[in-house]
Amino acid sequence: MMGVIMYLRLGYIVGNVGLIGTLTIISLATFIIFLSSLSIATIATNTPVKGGGAYFLISRSLGIEIGGAVGIPLYFAQAFSISFYISGFSESMISIFPDWDPRYIGMVTIFLLGSLALFSTNATIKAQYFILAIIGFSLLSLFLGRPMEGVEIKMWETPTGSSVGFWPLFALFFPAVTGIITGVNMSGDLKNPARSLPKGTFMTLGVSYLIYMGLPIILASRADTSTLLQDPLVMQRISWWGGAIILGLWGASLSSAMGALLGAPRVLQALVNDRIFTKQLNILGKGAGLEKIPRAGTVFTMALTMLAVYFLNLDMIAPILTMFFLTTYAVLNITAGIERFLRSPSFRPKFKIHWFFSLLGAVGCIAAMFLINPLATISAMVVISLIFLWLKRRRMEATWGDVTRGMYLTLIRYAIMRLSKDAHPKSWRPNLLVLSGSPNKRWRLIEFANDLTQANALFTVSTILPEKSVGQDKVLKFEKQMSDYLQRRNVQALVRVIRAANPFTGAAQLVDAYGLGPLVPNTILLGDTKETKHHTPYAKMIDHFHQSKKNVLIVQDDDNRGFRHHRVIDIWWGGLKRNGSLMIILAYLLKNTPKWYRATVNIKMVVASEEGRVDAQKNLDELFSQMRTGFQYQILVAKIESFWDIQKRESANSDLVMMGLGFSRGGKGFEEYYSKLKENTASLPTKVFVLAAQDIAFEEVLR
């Protein structure tokens, strides 16, 4: 916490915004870190904390994808912070040796510090005590100093005409209070992280805040604005012994760099060990010796920081660090807030705070980011989002539980409790129950359901197992196998497996019982039955669906031709009511998918005479202009041909044929009707028979 900013840039900040402005910047930055510290303490006292610090805390709560999306930028922020501290050290060195190149000073320093970190963590930490004593001596020397001679000091004057605004200076100062992240990153090396992290963090924050609030008062009372702006080492001129400031600066910059050199490789080590990166980078996660020092990760970090030191300077690095650190603290606050808000039984921290404080910390971090640099903030969010999507596409599986399931359950409960059972037609969507059996055997059903729902509605893939040959203990195993299969095929669907005496009674039982509150399937999608002995129970099952007010879609694909080119959909239409409206809605949903968006939808209607065609044409012109579907429609005159002959000729080359399913009340005669229907349409390509049974005015959806 006592670092480069304190020695080299605090005077510059006072010179630009005055004493009150500087104290405001320090207080605001510390307040944000204080709220974040509360969140860190809450998470750290709830679960055993291992290596990886902030990444570990986030990933174990919000999941590996969000943890990785924040952890990767956090690692680079830590690595760049080493460059930041070393750049400050080099800047002070050239004030004594002006002929030296600060870039090479920095690179040599990184090599020496890295060599120490490579071989002993304990030795590196113990060296910090000596450095702390030097920093303490430098602050004492500053306290015992006196004002500059020959200058007029106006302590409470607010500078005018400053070229640097409040928020850029806040961005410049903020890295000075991010030192607590170093302690968090060393969590895996602590004997009792749950005790040490909160205690060390709050003590550090309190002591450093008192020191930081006192330093601007000393600077403003001993030096004029011009000197504060022009001399980075103004503390040297107003101290009891100026050399102590140089020693303190060296100690602070080297101490901070050493801390970051210990912390950054351990974040990288945790990322690698969680398989965030490819196997080729596994060497970066290996630990050496009893202390499990990530030597390969340390060497990699050293090389990265040397490049940054060579190409960047102190003022260029500071705003970059601020964005990455603020992002990390924002997500830590969100993590703690969500955990506390959800009240999960597994979240029982010893250090408890209200979720509001975590939310306030997150809002403070995000607001500060936008006020500092909106473009940089958006860029940081884009980077994190891209990393998240990359990790999500890799379908990574964590070996630990996280808070995401609890979040989803809370959101689901909220939505279901507010979901009306009697939905308005305008909000209707197909909530499908697919009676597919084994998914790989009737994939066409799942494919069709997936196209209809478009990831905007629910659908469930179900199968009924014979209860005589399959035990109840095998049900979950089958569900897992089906879920994995669907996931590999990029299909987002629920899975339900039940046991029954036969598939027909099992399907009826499933339709009666499946669902949650108002969230129940409204449409049953199933295949055809080919065996004659199954016609009677199949017809009774359809009758049961109809009486249950469920829409029925029967997909018939006799020759396993599928949907071929996905280019032509024919709808054989008998009017707008019931089946007719539902078929047009289904065709419209298909047209909005990548597979079917080039398809032509043809509405075909058969009339008995030419006079009937004229009347139908007039009605359809007005009707379809109101629908706004863009579908084509055609009126065919039967003359001496039968309907079935016309249909056979007109739809012979279609990719999908839809037609309504007639159904008498109580299902009387359906078995015979359906057998004749299949016989008359046997030569057609893939067909979907549509039966609208739900109590909803589907024509309202089209208006």
UniProtKB/TrEMBL annotation:
Q: Does the keyword Transmembrane helix apply?
A: yes
Cell location: Membrane
Q: Per the database entry, which stretches of residues form a coiled coil?
A: none
Q: Name one GO molecular function term.
A: chloride:monoatomic cation symporter activity
Q: Name one GO cellular component term.
A: membrane
Q: Where is the Amino acid permease/ SLC12A domain?
A: 1-433
Transmembrane segment boundaries: 12-41, 62-84, 104-120, 127-145, 165-188, 200-220, 240-262, 293-311, 317-339, 375-391
Taking every annotated instance into account, which residue ranges of this chain make up the domain SLC12A transporter C-terminal?
Answer: 444-528
Which Pfam families does the UniProt entry name for this protein? Answer: AA_permease, SLC12
The membrane topology noted for this protein in its Swiss-Prot or TrEMBL record is: Multi-pass membrane protein
Q: Recite the UniProt keywords alphabetically.
A: Membrane, Transmembrane, Transmembrane helix, Transport
* Family indicated by similarity: Belongs to the SLC12A transporter family.
Q: What is this protein called?
A: Na-K-Cl cotransporter
- Which species does this protein come from? Litoribacter ruber
